[in-house]
Amino acid sequence: RRVLLLGEGNFSFSAALCGAQGTHVVATCYESEREAAGRGGAARSIRRLRDSGAEVVFSVDCTKLKEHFPPGNREFDRIYFNFPHCGRKAGVVKNRQLLAGFFQSCAEVLAQEGEVHVALCNGQGGTPADQPRREWHNSWQIVAVAAGAGFILSDVHPFGAETIDGYKCTGYRSQDKSFCVEGALNHIFTRSTAPLCFTPMSCKTQLGSQKVSFQVPQVLVDKIDRGFLEVNSSHPVRTIKEKLSAGLSQAFPVHNISSCLPLLHQGHPDGIFPSNIFWITLSPAEAPSTEETSQGLANTALLSHFGQDTDKNAQEGCPIPKQFYLRPSLLPHARAIIKKRAFSPGTLQVLSGPVFRKCRITPHSMPVFHELLVVVAVSRGTESSCIQMLVDNIKTTVNSLHQGVSGIKPSVSLQEATSFGAELNDFAAFEWQLGEIQHFLCVGTDPDPSGSCVGVIRTAPDELKSSELVVVSASLNLDLLAMLLCGISDWRMLWTSDRRFLRQFPEGELRLFKSFSLYPPSYEHDVSFWVPDGEEFDEVAFHTLARRVSGETVVSIQLRDNFQQPGTGRRSLCYRVTFQACDRALGCREAAEMQLHFREEMQQHLGVTLR
């Protein structure tokens, strides 16, 4: 591998590396050879480097690296810059500018999978790894500076000067005074994936007897067809789904619904807030006729139980409205199977797939997640024992899964819906809209053993219109389970395009996730506006717009002020919007541009007047 060292003082660090097998060292410094050789011990280290076949280059500006290395000689696997400093009494601003130019220059000469190592004195970096930690404005803000050039902090550890044979730190402010290396940290940066380009996308799905295409909502473009549950996937949501299905098959006969379930429903979902739905409009050329739609709905269960009685409307010749929406649940498909009595009592019907729900922005609120739905018809009076069997089986599977995840100890509990004391998360709150719930299934991990709701259990005594059978269903949020079992703090990481995520999960294995982007910088921007007179402000639409404009880099939206103007009664709202990426570099300039774009889109799509 090719290793580039910058800003060397006496070349003792380079000399310590030059003997490593399979490593070609290119050692450089900012001074001329004459100036550098005058430093104590430098001449000896330079001779050692040259004798070992290393390159020694002088008068190298770390902000203009491509000027010093021809195109065929630029691919460095690792770049070291130990204790960078502008010299003399340069303040934090000048040193940030030095780092900014350095990282921009590194992007032009670093191999795609390469690393940039920057050693800083304790406190300079401005990350939580510094102990004690400086105030942000008084630090070099190295992670934010690197993000501006497309780099993320992937590791940080003590510099360990005492472990480097022959190393002697030198060059403090261009004087013969060394840097203080006690508590110094080595920051390791890697290239970030590029920001996603959300070009318009169409998706095909079955609607009745024909295939139709529709425009995918922009906020879902990178999520609509990822194939996480497919056979060749090693994604943790598939691993959990397969393990749960296998566990259930030990206690029940299981029938997996393998056919492709339609993405679209039609009608008006009764009981669900319209703002929580992703509405879809088919192009005129794509929209099926009323007759085709009616027949198709009878065959493929496109319409959910929430809406109007479409079969009845079709029989009576009433027109069916051409309104479509992305499925928010798999329950309609399960209920269609039950309605047709296409099942055997006692056999679990297992359905799985992504579902789509507009929601507010929080670390655990997902506009799309993978649902595992199991439905079974049992003899009336045995539903309680059936529920207990289901829960016991899920507990056993979850406990077996955690054994491969060091440091995670889950606890699974079943709680009555009427006595559920914890605040409902967005998943549980939405499930209430779909129908009555008897039990919440919660999974807790240290330090919060009380847990988060990851599933709901329902009984439907009248579903079959039978005096002998009762339908029991359990819906599980596989994404929330994956987060809890693998220690993933942000749902967005499950959808990252960075290959370093899936590399941590060999097929069929769950492991404790280690983030490859440490201490990502965050940027706060406030926005204030007048609400249209006489209208309720739709917060879910506001959050969804923020998701779309930012490419899911908004992590928090907090109401700061709600003001009503005396006399006119006009209402003004002020929100604080926080931008932060969990898996890629996000610089302050990009965040500021997103905020400006967000303000423009708010005026156009929400009808507000900016202040």
Automatic annotation (TrEMBL):
What is the predominant subcellular site recorded for this chain? mitochondrion
GO molecular-function terms, A-Z? ATP binding; phenylalanine-tRNA ligase activity; rRNA (uridine-N3-)-methyltransferase activity
- GO CC annotation terms, alphabetical: mitochondrial matrix
Compartmental location:
Mitochondrion matrix
Q: Could you tell me which residue ranges the FDX-ACB domain spans?
A: 518-611
Listed under catalytic activity are: tRNA(Phe) + L-phenylalanine + ATP = L-phenylalanyl-tRNA(Phe) + AMP + diphosphate + H(+)
Q: Which Pfam families does the entry mention?
A: BMT5-like, FDX-ACB
Enzyme Commission identifier(s): 6.1.1.20
Identify the keywords attached in UniProt to this record, alphabetized. Answer: Aminoacyl-tRNA synthetase, ATP-binding, Ligase, Mitochondrion, Nucleotide-binding, Protein biosynthesis, Transit peptide
Q: What biological process terms from GO does the record include?
A: rRNA base methylation; translation
> Can the keyword Protein biosynthesis be found in this entry's annotation?
yes
Enzyme category, top tier: ligase
Q: Which PANTHER family match?
A: FERREDOXIN-FOLD ANTICODON-BINDING DOMAIN-CONTAINING PROTEIN 1 (PTHR11538:SF26), PHENYLALANYL-TRNA SYNTHETASE (PTHR11538)
UniProt record similarity statement = Belongs to the class-II aminoacyl-tRNA synthetase family.
The protein in question is named phenylalanine--tRNA ligase
Q: Which organism is it from?
A: Polioptila caerulea
